[in-house]
Amino acid sequence: MNDHDWLTLACELARSCPPSETAFSVGVIVVAHGGKEMARGFSRESDPLDHAEEAALAKIDPADPRLPTATVYSSLEPCGKRKSRPQACARLIVGSGIRRVVMAWREPDLFVEGRGAEVLSAAGVVVVEMPELADLARKPNAHLVP
């Protein structure tokens, strides 16, 4: 599979999120170099405060040697600020050692000022935006952002 295929799956995974009026529905898939899926997660997967990146990364051993060459596929830009937990998703990704993120949609400034892509880039993480999939990422969030 290629970036487009993995990101499409992440966008579709966002439909699994329990509905919320105070948070976006996001899907994430972490893929090792070579194309093997390492983990997936979605917003509010096991806790009402879970973000998708957080849920996926929690399923991976932090010592996994594949992390530096893995890619995070996220339907929404990883958050750069967070109200509900001390670590924003962009910081969790940087801390994991992952050096590549592919995203479909920039986080609107609805709840917090996003800017996760800037946090990632400043830390040396390659950020690829695929705006052709933004509409698919917006669908499970249509009640928040028409």
From TrEMBL:
Domain CMP/dCMP-type deaminase, chain residue ranges per copy: 1-118
The name this protein goes by in its record: CMP/dCMP-type deaminase domain-containing protein
Molecular-function GO terms, alphabetical: catalytic activity
Cross-referenced InterPro entries: CMP_dCMP_dom, Cytidine_deaminase-like
PROSITE patterns the UniProt entry points to: CYT_DCMP_DEAMINASES_2
